[in-house]
Amino acid sequence: MLSLPQLIEEDVAVLDAALGDLITRSEATAALVIDKGGPLIIERGNCDDFDTTTMAALAAGSYCANQAIAGLVGESDFSSVYQQGVTHSLLVQNVDDQLLLVVIFRASLSVGAIKYFAAGTTQLIANQMVRARERAPDEGMDLVELNLADTSSLFQRREPAQQRAV
User: Fold this and answer.
1) The pairing of beta strand 80-83 with beta strand 40-45
2) CA–CA separation, 22 vs 18, rounded Å?
């Protein structure tokens, strides 16, 4: 699996704007971009009523389990998982080999409309991740292996890629 590329301010701004646009256009409650291993990358919308860190981990697990089910029924993959609730529903949509888009929305909204708007969002996110990987192809991190007790290695100043010795 690919490691998450190093994200800069431009990447975060594009992801944030894409999620904001999705929420506005679809009337969803919240949207998250998560790593397929479970870590939360970014969230947008009204997330106050949700434990988004736990939701990210569980949504990633649910998506992974559904991929296994896809194999059992002869499908190469299922591109999304839909969870219908009484007050809220959840759509987990594949973005690329590394990321998932999670959309939380009122159960009264049509999942078809959410999928329609999510399709454009997933493409924007995937395109930005390609740009981030191309900017620094040899740099990245596996968020699942991160030591959250000691994050000091993440916050070190690094010299630009073009100045490093080859």
Assistant:
1) unpaired
2) 6
According to CATH, what is the number of the domain 9-163? 3.30.450.30
> What is the pTM assigned to this prediction?
0.82
**Three-class SS state of 73:** coil
Contacts of 6 (CB under 8 A, 6+ apart): 132, 135, 136, 139, 140, 141
Beta strand pairing call for 30-35 and 40-45: antiparallel
Cβ distance 90 to 102 under 8 Å? yes
At 60-119, the pLDDT tens digits run 999 999 999 999 999 988 899 999 999 999 999 999 999 999 999 999 999 999 999 999
Q: Is 107 helix (H, G, I), strand (E, B) or coil?
A: coil
